[in-house]
């Protein structure tokens, strides 16, 4: 009886894991799309002198927009920058996101719009201050 009680107390005293549940398909798509968008913006900031980077298709991703699948496909298929290592790494992430969205997590996707222009010219997120604050 005593060893079982001791084992139960040790189990209850064990610190909980940092991630209580495994990531879902949706959370994986969302985090990878944010990572791809951030990497693309970093690439544009770090390598603006690379002529090919200027001509890459833009990557402002919204996984709730139906046009995102075509956007990902076009980016991977673009032949610009095939010699730039950061672009190759970014294309690998984009390919992975496309595969996840189109194969593994297809049933989890809910498209809320099909506005392709929203992926070309995203609306900037602004913070509106409450009245009286500057």
From TrEMBL:
Keywords noted in UniProt: Signal
InterPro entries tied to this protein: CYTL1 (IPR029253)
Signal peptide: 1-20
Top-rank taxon, per record: Eukaryota
Keyword field contains Signal: yes
An example Gene Ontology biological process: positive regulation of transcription by RNA polymerase II
Keyword Signal annotated: yes
Stated name of the protein: Cytokine-like protein 1
Lineage of the species this protein comes from: Eukaryota, Metazoa, Chordata, Craniata, Vertebrata
């Amino acid at each position: 009886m005593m060893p079982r009680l001791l084992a139960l107390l040790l189990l209850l005293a064990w610190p909980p894991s940092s991630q209580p549940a495994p990531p879902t398909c949706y959370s994986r798509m969302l985090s990878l799309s944010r990572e791809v968008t951030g990497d693309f913006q970093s690439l544009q900031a770090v390598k603006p002198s690379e002529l090919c980077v200027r001509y890459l298709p833009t990557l402002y991703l919204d996984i709730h927009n139906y046009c995102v699948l075509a956007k990902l496909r076009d980016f991977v298929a673009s032949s610009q920058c095939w010699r730039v290592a950061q672009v190759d790494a970014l294309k690998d992430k984009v390919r992975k996101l496309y595969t996840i969205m189109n194969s593994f997590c297809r049933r989890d996707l809910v498209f809320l719009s099909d506005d392709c222009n929203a992926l070309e010219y995203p609306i900037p997120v602004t913070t509106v201050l409450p009245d009286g604050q500057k």
